Amino acid sequence: MLSRLTRLQAVAVCALPVVALLATAALAPLPFSVAQPGMTANVLGENQGTQVITVSGAPTRKTSGQLRMVTIEATGPDAKVTFGDVLGNWFRTDRAVMPRDAVYPSGDTVKEIEKHNAAQMLQSQDAATQAALKYLGLSAGKVKVTLKLADVGGPSAGLLFTLGIIDKLEGDGNGGDLTGGRTVAGTGTIDADGTVGAVGGVALKTQAARRDGASVFLVPKAECTDAKAELPKGLRLVPVTTLKTAMTSLTALRTGKGSIPSC
After folding, report:
1. Per-domain residue ranges of the chain
2. What Å distances lie between residue 187 and 5, 12, 82, 89, CA to CA?
3. 69 neighbors 147 (Cβ within 8 angstroms)
4. pLDDT digit string (tens) for 169-222?
5. Which of 139, 145, 220, 227 could hold 129 in an S-S bridge, CB 3.0 to 4.6 Å?
6. Measured between alpha carbons, how far is 46 from 63 in angstroms, rounded to an integer?
7. CATH classification of 38-72+110-255 is 3.30.230, yes or no?
């Protein structure tokens, strides 16, 4: 003969499947990546013991100041991100929870994604070299530029590569540095014609830039709102749309003459 359950016992028994379901949901992998501020590198110097920019076929100059490209670090494409991970990082200002497809190409294997990111980096380096030499009026047939940046993929360092090449070859054109001795950071893709394109994760990149000493951050104009979201104190945003506008703004910062756009 079955005994009658008390109301409390009945509620407890009914709650068990719900608790089990919630526990399963909390541990189930979700299609998200968690990102944080990543490493930065001075493109005018060395990274992991290797010179980032090497030029042959034309004289180069000794530079001061820094031009720092910035990155974000995200959980890998095959990493298990649970509801607990999402909830724990959602409200942190130094973390961003993003759809995995916004960080990595959908449906690719880890090796294919790494290959894709490496290819994007090579394309970015080629475009940066073309844009810099075109701006300086130099022939790509005579001047050879080699760019090396270990463990970084994607196209978002294009603008900083371009500025670094120009600073190495000509500086401000009058014997000075593009940076004016400052630590300038930034992000943005670049086309061979000098057009600067948007990238992702700018709110995290500004944090990485300030952490590593930057006082100025060049940001694609279309991403001003995102860049201001968690802007660290002491970091000045300068929006850019082309290589020419970036150069004009750096000149104004260096000389104190002319207007400097702001977000």
Report:
1. 38-72+110-255
2. 65, 55, 30, 24
3. no
4. 999 998 899 999 999 999 999 999 999 999 989 999 999 999 999 999 999 999
5. 145
6. 13
7. yes
